[in-house]
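Sequence in, structure out. First:
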Amino acid sequence: MTYTVLSTLLAYPDAEMVAALPELRSALAPADAATLAPLFAMMEGKPDLIALQEEYVATFDRRPAHSLHLFEHVHGESRDRGQAMVNLREEYLRHGLEPRPGELPDYVPMFLEFLGQLPAPQAAVLLGDAIHVLARIGDKLDAAGSPYARAFDVLRRLTDVQPEALPEPPEGDMEEGMVTFGPGAGMTEPALRAHGQPQPVRFHATDPRRAAAGTGKGGNHG
């Protein structure tokens, strides 16, 4: 349930999510609930839903360094980001899950929802591959004093992989057609839905750090 709770807390807040805050807290292990206490306090302390939504927009939409799209922190706006998202979407599909139309596959809440639907060992492997980017987002949020950083502290505890520093993402234009999958959808639908029989997923296949390491070490991808 931890991945599912974090996915919900990091998504754009709506009335249903606010009403579910007590249930979300109770679904967590005590240590995780304690870590997330500042985030719950911020959410519950807002005078109304609009104030909470404004906080979310100010935190994530107006601060590129806090973007909740994984590949922005690796590829920037280059064409490589578009192809990486195509690859990640294909891996969702191979595992029997289909992203909701209109959602980009590298959206952190979607990725966490995906992990929450996998067996724990598989989820741990994929989190270990993604933790380098997730930790970077968390560090940026922490430096800004945002309670949302606490969600990324919990993610760090869910893996034994130590996050590595990532280089600054490149600048460049990105073709929107490469990363758009179908028309928009209502916010009430789940981000992922069943799609055929599950197949093995290797998230690291889309990790550009591994590809770079391979080309620099005689083609060995590890």
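Second:
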Amino acid sequence: MTPTGDFSASGTIERQGRAPAQPAGASKMATALIVEDHPEQARLVERILALRGYDAFIAEDGETGLLMARRHQPDVVLLDLMLPDVNGFDVCRRLRSDRATMLTPVVMLTALDDRQHRMHGFRVGANAYLTKPYGVDELFDAIAAARAWRESMQRQALQGEIHVELDSEVTLLKDLNDFLMNVCRATPLSNDQVMQIRQAVMEMAQNAIEWGNQHRSDRLVEITYRVHSDGLEIVIRDQGSGFDRDALPHAAAPDDPFTHLDVRDKLGLRAGGFGMLICQGMVDEMRYNRAGNEVTLLKRYAQPDPPPSGDE
């Protein structure tokens, strides 16, 4: 049964009944995980999904959502951002940093409708971002796009050296997440290492957009990755004039790491220098070219424990 017209996820709907039981041999029902702390909202979304044959289950906080995503491997996660324990951005980031869930489609459903929150959603790996109230068609279009993303990712296989060029900020963040998913799947990186390299690359890509290219969409960010026998190498290059690392404007000072935070926050800018400090703790080696517009990140694979010597 398909609802007629368009209605809001913040409204109400008369129960039409769940999809009928499938006969033996029928294809498996699609599943959805709803991570939402308001029971009425969660049940409404569950009923909407049932109208198109989805079997949905609900988690009322972020940690439960993460556990259920690993356990049930849903076809899509519908993720609220304002949760009582872990915010939805962090839930999405952790889903993307875990091999068991890194390809799980994620649609963010939220009342937060400003550019910064949208950008943050794509930065941590969301496939779609819908603001409440939204229509039924909008919801299912977002779900279809998210599931198509996973199918596309599963068909791809990366090896050797890959070079990509990305332009606008939104495009970069979306495409970079796809790029990183394939990189992580093509290497023996551990879950912790996946999280670290994703964080490092995102920070440096954001620096390239903001500091290097000055948010100019006509300037590209070039990213190259190389798989080595003992680790992963990622090179990020912008088209800016570079910088002097000894004279970073508004950078974090060693004796006062919070210098300029208030001023830059009012200007809508990230704190200069913090991306570099974050990355240094996330990778095994980080180096810049002489001009300062290219950074190379090296992440070595976890080494297996040596076999026992046999001596008791």
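Remark: Residues 191-212 form the longest helix (22 residues).
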